[in-house]
């Protein structure tokens, strides 16, 4: 099993059906069924990103208390550590929970406690990236970053997720400039469903350091050259792309091409409870179904450490473990 950094992981997307049922019962929230197998079976046929998001957001009404957020993150971090993840940079969507009347303190306190406990139990290193839900718009994003600043020590960066098409990065310029002035890292989903113009805007207007997904950047050779020249990481999610019909088949996945072009591509699981498993399952699919070589897989793992928001000594330790 390769040691890796998982850089594109939505904590809310790690909610396995067993935990979904436990939390629904704990908080007296109705689910369409209480059979975990039936719940998971609904994830087989997403038509696109939005059809996934609709089910995903409906599930998230079960998350209510600090303990719920603790249990969610603890479960992921234990599975990730067992799957070779040395470093997890984890997205969370506080606006979803605020919309359910859950205070920010419950979200941050639950996640922070889970990170601290997982770090001492397994040695995994983890941090949070707060995402703006693009379909709530730029003003709501600005409101969130201001409300989150009292918790500034709980997260290392900001990201942009949810419905992509129709919500271009430029709408979030103010929220990102506040984040930049606070010294926060900046990333954004772009080029998952929308075209290369969204990737350009994420770079030029939001000043992002990594692009989440970035598949459609390959349609623009000038953009590819920029991403190569600046070694801007792309956090690709191969199994997610298959489940959400971003690619027709894993065999069509652009990852091998990205490596050939010299792009700093990495691999993550996105929403492992919905998309066929964790980062280890993604690596297994690349090896077994896409036929990627061990050398390419090691390059992807190395890229993940190069792209992580950590100090150079920590980074060098993981790279020497990988290459040792
Ligand atoms: N939220 C959770 N997963 C996502 C994805 N793949 N794209 C956009 N928003 C998301
Ligand atoms: Zn994502």
Overall average pLDDT: 98
- Determine the number of helices (DSSP H or I, runs of at least 4 residues): 15
Q: Share of helix among residues?
A: 40-55%
| Class from secondary-structure proportions | alpha/beta
At the first level of CATH, the class is Alpha Beta
Topology of this structure?
Layout: E1 4-10, H1 17-27, H2 36-41, H3 49-59, H4 66-82, E2 85-92, H5 94-98, H6 104-122, E3 125-133, H7 138-148, E4 157-161, H8 173-181, E5 185-190, H9 196-204, E6 210-213, H10 221-229, E7 234-236, H11 238-243, H12 255-261, E8 265-267, H13 279-288, H14 294-307, H15 312-323
Parallel strand pairs: 1-2, 2-3, 3-4, 4-5, 5-6, 6-7, 7-8
Helix pairs in contact: 4-6, 7-8, 14-15
Structure summary:
With 324 residues, this protein is α/β, with parallel strands linked by helices.
Description:
- By secondary structure, the protein is α/β, with parallel strands linked by helices.
- The longest helix has 19 residues.
- The protein has an 8-stranded parallel β-sheet with strand order 1-2-3-4-5-6-7-8.
- Helix 7 runs parallel beside helix 8.
- The chain has a single domain, classed as Metal-dependent hydrolases (TIM Barrel, Alpha-Beta Barrel), CATH 3.20.20.
- Bound molecules: adenine and zinc ion.
- Adenine (ADE) binds next to loops.
Question: Could you name the key traits of this structure?
Answer:
eight-stranded parallel beta sheet; TIM Barrel; binds zinc ion; binds adenine; 324 residues; alpha/beta
């Amino acid at each position: 099993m390769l040691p890796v950094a998982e850089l594109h992981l939505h904590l809310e997307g790690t909610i396995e059906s067993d935990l979904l049922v436990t939390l629904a019962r704990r908080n007296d929230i109705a689910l369409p069924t209480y059979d975990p197998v039936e719940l998971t079976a609904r994830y087989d046929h997403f038509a696109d990103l939005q059809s996934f998001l609709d089910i995903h957001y409906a599930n998230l009404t079960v998350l209510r208390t600090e303990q719920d957020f603790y249990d969610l993150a603890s479960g992921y971090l234990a599975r990730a550590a067992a799957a070779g993840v040395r470093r997890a940079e984890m997205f969370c969507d506080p606006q979803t929970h605020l919309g359910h009347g859950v205070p920010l303190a419950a979200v941050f306190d639950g996640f922070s406690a889970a990170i601290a406990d997982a770090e001492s139990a397994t040695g995994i290193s983890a941090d949070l990236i707060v995402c703006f839900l693009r379909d709530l718009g730029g003003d709501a994003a600005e409101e969130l970053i201001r409300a989150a600043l009292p918790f500034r020590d709980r997260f290392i960066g900001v990201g942009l997720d949810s419905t992509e098409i129709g919500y271009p990065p430029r709408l979030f310029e103010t929220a990102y400039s506040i984040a930049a002035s606070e010294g926060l890292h900046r990333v954004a989903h772009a080029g998952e469903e929308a075209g290369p113009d969204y990737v350009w805007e994420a770079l030029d207007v939001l000043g992002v350091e990594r692009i989440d997904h970035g598949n459609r950047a390959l349609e623009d050779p000038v953009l590819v050259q920029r991403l190569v020249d600046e070694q801007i990481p792309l956090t690709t999610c191969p199994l997610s792309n298959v489940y959400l019909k971003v690619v027709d088949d894993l065999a069509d996945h652009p990852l091998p091409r990205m490596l050939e072009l010299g792009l700093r591509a990495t691999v993550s699981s996105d929403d492992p409870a919905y998309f066929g498993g964790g980062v280890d399952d993604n690596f297994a699919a690349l090896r077994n179904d896409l036929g990627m070589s061990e050398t390419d897989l090691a390059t992807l793992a190395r890229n993940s450490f190069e792209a992580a928001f950590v100090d150079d000594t920590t980074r060098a330790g993981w790279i020497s473990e990988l290459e040792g």
